[in-house]
Model the fold of this input.
Amino acid sequence: MRISTLITALVVSVLSAGAANASEICKAKTFQKYGETRAFFQDVIAGCDTNKNCYAATHVADNGQGYAYRQQIRVRRNFGEPTNRLFFVGVDPMPASKGQFSISVDDQAWTLSAETALTPQSGNEFELYDLKVADRMVAMIRGGKEVSWLYPTETGGTHVARFGVRGMYAALKWTTCMQAR
Done:
């Protein structure tokens, strides 16, 4: 009898600990990871740090090479900033630092030069530094279903990454709520 009571207590304890780690904030089920509050919205993950700097991101999954993802697009708005920042990250294949980039949201396309429109943040991460263009793109992404990013690769070819963004509207709405709290 004592063993079954001990097992029951252990199961209740484990279930309670899991429930305590998840909660609902701004009408979304959230969880904590790396000091952020995060939530999933279909094909998009959103997160906010303790300073209310928030992002919404989607990615192309790795195909077994051992990377966290192959490509990623991330919309970021730091607390108190009036505009969104838009980032593109390529891992496999690696993007070239120069050349033409093309971004399409459903049937709307933009061609950007890596030299004039995108600022390399690292070897494979680019930020769209014209914040007015970034805000227009984010508005399109918010209402879109798919984003395509065509970029030149380090090896001389081109690569097209396709991202689902069906959850971007809800994710960005959630980040706005999180920053208003």
User: Anything to note?
Assistant: Confidence is low (pLDDT under 50) at residues 1-20. The two ends are 49 Å apart (CA to CA). DSSP finds three helices and 13 strands in the chain.
